[in-house]
Amino acid sequence: MPSTTPAKWLLLIHQVPAKPDYLRVKIRRRLTGLGAVALKSSVYVLPANGESRARLGELAREILGQGGEALVCEAQLVEGLADGSVEDLLRAARDAEYAAIGKEAKRLAAELRGPRGRDESRRRRVGQAQERLRARFDQTVGRDLHGAHGRDAAAGLLSLVEDLVQGVEESGQRTETPEPPLGATWVTRAGVMVDRIASAWLIRRFIDPAARFKFVNGRGYRPREGELGFDMAGAEFTHHEGRCTFEVLVERFRLRDSALRPIAEIVHDLDLEDGRYHRPEAAGVDRMIVGLAIAKQGDETRLVQGGAVFENLYESFRRRSR
């Protein structure tokens, strides 16, 4: 009896002619651009949906037009390969793309932090490269249908480059101790990761117990009257002279609690990735924060759950310092 279960996958089964030589490379690049992965050398898979059907159909017609063989079919996996294994293949392909984007973002960040990083022509050139990298990232996100783990790490590195291009590390250069606010709205970039999560915990724990947090697109946003920005371009409190936002907050508000120092070093190592402190706890903290991102929690939830991580770290270091 035919199955009534909707097919989960679409397969492109094809054979490209030997000539012209460039055609095989062209088809492979097209498949990569669609986000397809190979199950066999000539069998590629995508999740079954209208867009995949249209794109694979178009590619099959192109192969046929070049004298090759191609067909697109719906598939259900019965034996030999599970749906979860195919999803893992698709996630791994996207993770490889995110890793390449992250590597390039690190290179651009290092270029802007170098001795000629403030040169206007260099910043403009890096800005153009960052825009191209953002387009690559957006394309990868568009074909990331199964939540690849590397997305948030790449997004964080890309946001760092965007902030550096906009002069984020020239912000926050005031040295006076500000009056601790009460119940202020603290604004930061959406998609919070380690520095913003740790900074939000620090703000509520030591600076502004009634703080409210607002999450925005960091590109071009300027805090409104009564808002305090942190860890974003043009913010009152953000990266400065090789220090992460958490370190800047500790310094600006003159927080002398000795248990905050190792936390600042952990956050520095994870956020700036310059290997300055080599804190042994950093890897574990990183896995917990990445776990929050993988779970696709909202920013408020990340602050609550991530804040608990830093609260426990603080208690541990506080007891050691007694």
TrEMBL record:
Residues 186-316 form the ChrB C-terminal domain. InterPro entries: ChrB_C, ChrB_N. It comes from the Bacteria. Residues 24-162 form the ChrB N-terminal domain. This is Chromate resistance protein. It comes from Eiseniibacteriota bacterium. The lineage of its organism: Bacteria, Candidatus Eiseniibacteriota.
